[in-house]
Structures are given as structure tokens and as C-alpha cells.
Design goal:
InterPro entries: CobN/Mg_chltase. It comes from Methylobacterium dankookense. Residues 1-140, 146-543 form the CobN/magnesium chelatase domain. This is CobN/magnesium chelatase domain-containing protein. With 556 residues, the chain is of the alpha/beta class. 52% of the residues lie in helices and 12% in strands. The chain has 26 helices and 16 strands. An eight-stranded mixed sheet has the order 13-12-11-10-7-14-15-16, with helices on both faces. The protein has a two-stranded parallel ribbon with strand order 1-2. A two-stranded antiparallel ribbon has the order 3-4. The termini are far apart.
Amino acid sequence: MALSPTCWPALAVGPLPVIYPFIVDDPGEAAPLKRRLGGIALGHLTPEIQRGGREPETMRLREQVEEYAAASLLDPRRAALIARAILDEAEALGHLSGAGIAPGTPMPEALAALDAHLCDLGETAFRDGLHVFGRAPEDASPPRRASAAAERASLIAALDGRFVAPGPSGSPTRGRADVLPTGRNLTTLDPRAIPTRAAATLGAKAAEAVVTRYLQDEGAYPERVVMDLWASPTLRTGGEDVAHALHLMGVRPLWDHASTRVTGFEVLPPALLGRPRIDVTVRISGAFRDTFPDTLALIDRAARAVALREEPDEENPLAAARRRGEDPARVFGAAPGRYGAGAAETALDGAWARRQDLGAAYLNATTHAYGDAAGPSGSFAERVARADAYLHAFDVAERDLLDGDAAADALGGFHAAAESLGARPALFSLDVSEPERPKARTAREDVARLVRARLSAPAWIAAQLAHGHRGAQELAQGIDAVFVLAATTDAVSHADLDRLYGAWIADAAVFERLRVANPEAARAILARFEELRARGLWQTRRNAMPADALMPEAAE
């Protein structure tokens, strides 16, 4: 919805140009800026990318696994000794829980899981510090140097009231070389063309990856799933997440061949789908609600059409729900004009005593149904209580579950609400940063991966602190996300928190850099650790010193 001439932002800005330098891979910000204020979104580069899992202990384990693979063919007795030593060391280093290896797991299965986990750590991508607008390192690639120059020139042109050429938005790390050089006025997709044909294919592949993982873990297909839809990932991927939701239901979009806009959908027959349909509930972000009204209607109509089919309960849980008299609404979100999922804000800055308080905040923030029958609705709690699984998709590797508290807000709020209603659904963090190779991890697996390969990695810490005050804020944001997940789920282990404390606080050199760069962030981080311990969310054998002891000047 655009502003009228009498709206406060329009009155405040008047004829003054609005120039908004913003990261090129976040088109969800560019769309409302243009629609509501006619602003110029000057796209800038994303930071360079590093890979994790290169700590000496992790590399040593990977070498031992390779040694075991060679010995298993030539000397089985020696291989058995190596295998035992590998698992003992992995347990001492805290890798077994992160790899999902339970006590009593057969040795070959445990080693295969550990090998996959170690490879996963080695493939974990993270930002190598921050991008400084209009600058590029001397050894940067030609496209990055050209982008830096274009950013400077475009900013001067915009401030001078001159024309700034438009350019596409998207993620360079996801293969979108066309967004370079940056420094252009960001454009996005036509919302009426979402999902695109390519996105429909990739979204179906991602959907099947989640179904396969659930089937492997539980031995049955999920009947009911809750997933989130956010504006920026939808715009970045052309609607892969929307297609994902439709495919789970057994629905395929239809397009106008001339305009490529989505004109409707077809419900696939069960024989073509090859598995039971899945009852999908989507919780939309406020930005998604504001940007994609046609898509909301598409998902709502698709769910209602599937529910009206006369198919057996075991093949069509949506039809089964209709026959039980349940509310057919499957698209929910905050009230118009409201944003966020409620749990993170309450956990970080509100008054709460128990996890169920955070679940209540999540449910209280999800009060409306959307689609053709939009309006206030109290049915979302029932969808949460009946869900078999929850999933959140991450389309860019460096935007992960612990990158700020938004994803933790959504996933954690859902889990806290489900637990308060007596449910224990599976929690999946779906990595579609390589869309041809989607990977469904449990929330527990993903937290362990990200804590070890990113948040506690010396390379990531050094890259952030190289940017001084602003870089230190990245650490503070990281512990906030961890705190929200620890408060709302069981995905954060005590070992994860020990590792973070050891890397950030117990390492005297790191903590001194943090304290000097940003005393406020350092104290906020210490306060989070103290609160984790006080609330019983972190049980540690470490001698974790109170904030006043580490920063006595802040207590004065």
C-alpha cells in the first residue's frame, strides 16, 4: 500500500529526495522504499565470503576419517582402532551431538554421520567482515573494484539530483552476476510473476528434501507443516519458497505465456504426486503481506481447492480437516501495520518467566488470516498445535539461523507456542543456498554447525572486530539470536554456549579487542551470558566471571 499525500512520512519528507544505500541482496527493503516514499535504493556490495571448519581440531578429525577409510580396505583391525579413537576425540570436542550421533549408534553409521558433519562445517560460508560503501580491497576482483567505484559515483549523482541508472537486486553468492556492478537503483521482480517457472522447479526439489528428511527421521510422511514466508527471500529466488508450499500440497502454478505472470494453479492427481498431500500452513512476515497480496490469494485458494477434493483422509489431510469441520484458513500473519513474530522482542527486552510466555507472545502476534477471507482469526494456534514439523528456508548461505534474531524469532516462537500447546514438532532449517542441492538440517544440527564454524571461529571473529565499533555489534547480535533460541527451544546446547564464551570472553586477547572497540556491546554480551546462566539455560563448569569483574569501569 502506497502513502497518500496526507500520510505523515509524505508530509515529513515532502519534495526532499530519499537516498537509501542498501545491500544488493535484500530486495525486500527496496520495494517498500519505492512504493511508499519514491526513494532511490542505491545497491551496495555484499561482503566477501569465507568458509568455516578450518580449525586445527576439525581438520585433524577429517584427516583421521580419511585414514580410517583407507585402513578399512587394507587393515580392518587397525581401522577398528582408528574408528574408536575418532569417535572418542569427536565426543571430547563436542562433535557427536552436532552430528546427531546418539549413544549406541553403530560404528559405521556414526562415522558416516560424523564425516558428513565435518564436511558440512567445511562448507559453511560466512561474511568476511563488512563491506565499506564505495571501497574495495587492493586485491579485490575487477567486478568488486568496479562496483566500489560505481557506488561512489552513484551516491554523488543522487545527492546532486541527477539520474541513477536502475539495476537488478539479488545475491552474488547465489550466482546472480547480473547484479554487478552495484551502485544502481535497485529493481525487483513483478510480484504477479511469482513463483517463476524456474522457481517452481527448484521449490519442488526443496520441498521433497524436507519430506525425505522427515521420512528418514520419523518413518512416516508429515501430515501437517508450518513454514514462514518472507519478502526478501521470495524476491531473491523468484518465489522458490512459495512454490515449495504449493508443491507440498500437491499444487502447481499456471502462467500466462505472454506476460509470465501467474494466472492460477492446477491440483496434481495423487498418482502424479507420488506421496500423500501435506497440509501446509504459512506464517507470513509483515513485509510479505504488504508486497504480495496476489500471492496470498494464490496460496489461500490453492489450500481451499485441495481441501474440497474427495480423496481419502490418509492421502489428503486438508480434505480430512474440512470433513472434521476445521477452519480452512492456512495463511496467517500479524495484523495490518504490525511486524515481527513477538517472541524475540519479549525474550530480549520484555518481562517473561517461562518458555510458554514466549509462546504466548508469538501467538498474540499472529492474529489475522489472509487471502480471499482476510480478517481477524484465532485459528493459528490450532495449526501450531497440530503441526508435525516447522521449516524455515535460507536461500543465501551467509544469511543463516543465527544472523540476527529474526529467524530465531520465527522458529523459536513457533516452538515455544507448540510446546505450550502440548506438541513437539520437528524443527527444520532448510539450506537452499545451492538450490540444486537443498539440505534439510534440524535446528539442533544447524545451531551446532553455526556456533562451531562461524560464531566461535577465529577467522569470523577477527573479520568482524577488524571493523571496530560496528563489527563488535555483529557479535552482540549473534549472542542475541543464540539467547532467543535457547529461551524458546532445545536447539542450543550447554556445550555450544561454553564454546562461545571460550572464544569471545575467556580468550583474553579477543575480549580486550571487543571491549576496546565497543564497550557497550561487550557489556551487553556479558549480560546475555549472565542471563542465560541465571535462567538455567546454561549450565557450565567454566568459571564464567560476572560482567562487573570483567568490566569494572562499566559498573561505576
